[in-house]
Design brief:
This protein is α/β, with parallel strands linked by helices. The protein contains 10 helices and 21 strands.
Length: 407
Amino acid sequence: MKRPELLAPAGDMERLAAALMYGADAVYLGGQLFNMRAATESFSPDDLALAVNMCHKKNVKVYLVCNTLPRNAEVPFLPQFFEVAESTGVDALILADIGVMKLAQKYAPDINIHMSTQTGIVNYETANALHELGASRVIMAREISLDDIAEIRIKTPKELEIECFVHGAMCMSFSGRCMLSNYMTGRDANRGDCAQPCRWKYHLVEEKRPGQYFEITDSKKGTYILNSQDMCMIEHIPELVAAGVDSFKIEGRAKSAYYAAAVTNAYRAAIDEYLVAPSLDFKPSQWIIDEMKKISYRDYCTGFYFSEPSENAHVYYEGVYIREWDIIANVDSSDGEFLYVTQRNRFFKGDELEVLIPSTKPFSIKVDKMWDGKGEEIDVAPNPMAKIKIACDKEIPSGAVLRKERV
């Protein structure tokens, strides 16, 4: 059985480091141009070279996105973009446009080509055609079932890899091709600048009654008519493997380093558990499933994988994320007597904090004593980014996360 690849998002160097530490087999990231996540810091050519070096030292692959749809004025910038990509040693380019694909083959001939979900691949004929044009991997549209993926797997060459999203936000428009943001705010979703108007709350206004707002109610729960749930497939590893999915992709380049760490860690643990004893009825340990609610999330669904989503994939209550846990601090170092951390949120003497470290079930520590950067003992740590020393008899690796459940 082929070991599925775990592909994690890396919006910047901090998120890249988190994905590497917590078990990614590959990462995908964006440069300063042609990037579908314009709000992220992205990677300069120097940053990209550093990122590739960091990843390759850990035998982790790097996939560079070029998945916007370039306008005529942007096409002249593509050759240099691809030449830089090849010089840094990235393992693959993620593309959405056939013209861009041909330029990539000309200016970066040694880099593999992965065709983006933006391409809208939903059948084996398209997958085969893209493979004949030179693609080594196709990233399925999210609007496709596992049965359809299985058929595509059977009717395409074995060397053509299949990648699928397994976790994260879903778009209300097919393969992310949405015009709402551009129309309503001037921010083009197809060029990486989505304002997410699908998450907003809508009312109806009658022409002759200005100022009177009438609710649009799909149900008694509310008025968020475009707002989708998040995808979560962590309990369905066997089905994904059986369908022939080669790469499990986590959405979220614009999300936090903690998100990258926690979700990558959970899927890493789930995949590894499955590989120890593969079976169709496999379910990951409960602590792994619980991790899915220790990040910012919307209610979960399984997208289109098992059936056409209807009411069970819709968020009616509000457009924002559910946040049940706070990140308290990142661990800088420990020596078996003290824990040295960089604070993120306020915490108090006496708090029970949960520790997230790679490949291990989280455990708790109690803050019995702590000191500020001046060495003075304190009862509360109120300042984000402050350096705090905590009495702790456990050695905890640098990069671990301390978090606390909201009450």
